[in-house]
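debug: dumping io for the single-chain case to check the tokenizer round-trip. Nothing else runs in this session.
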Amino acid sequence: MYLQRHLIVGLVFLFQASKLLAAPVHHDLEVVVTPDIAAIEVRDTISLPKGYPASLTFSLHPALRPKLQDKTAKLIELPPPAVSRLSPLNQSAGIVPRRYRVELAAGTASFTLYYSGSIAHSLQSKGEEYARSFQETQGIISPQGVFLSGASVWYPHIDDQLITFDLRIRLPEAWKSMSQGEILDTPTAGEHWRETHAQEEIYLVAGPFTPYTSTDSGVTAMVLLREADTALAEKYLDTTHEYIALYSTLVGPDPFSKFAMVENFWETGYGMPSFTLLGSRVIRFPFILHSSYPHEILHNWWGNS
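debug: decoded output
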């Protein structure tokens, strides 16, 4: 039994390692969000690594019906999957996505999908975690803000495939967004996030934020607050640089070029690659700056396991 258990652990490790070694799929997303009607419109050009099969399957939120923009490719809707065959992200979210197969012409390494629809899953209370109750959503677009993760299935999920992405997003006036990677200067309206390191999922967070930034030793600290508060923002900017410098000395170089503290519109303590999403009350407790907040920064070296 001991050998069997360790063999299983070893196989799981090898499977995860093979995912990390495989070249990622790249998503080039153009997104328009209309919070007043919980609507999202997406054009996603998906580029496949060399040698990828010409026939592949993906999942998408059931409210988003994709249309293929390539005349040489074919899109086929598949029967709904059994719950046991859903990805861990979808199982935890409770969303049963639609499944599709794309068949590409020989020698084709990319295809484009267009889709639109509404994502508005209400906040649901959960049990106790770390001695406090909390709420979660499968994904929400609302006048208060936007929270979409991999569990929202808001972009095509290709089975067990790591991804990189460009995310160009158009939002209401005075709204700002947050995602993994770095934000690029754009000559047109909207914001452009680029993530070149392989990821498991794509986050899209947005709201009526006031942004604050500072750069030190090549790392950009960012703060997005729902109400302007320069004094509070500067505390978080300074603390971000302080702990990134400390952990870089103790653990190793910072794996990301930015870290952002984003104020959420409900109470959360989420850690994502290169940013954290914290509730309004939490970020105003003075002890958080040198307790829970450094904890969130340190997740960037170790992940959330």
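debug: round-trip ok. Residues 1-20, 128-133 have pLDDT under 50 and may be disordered.
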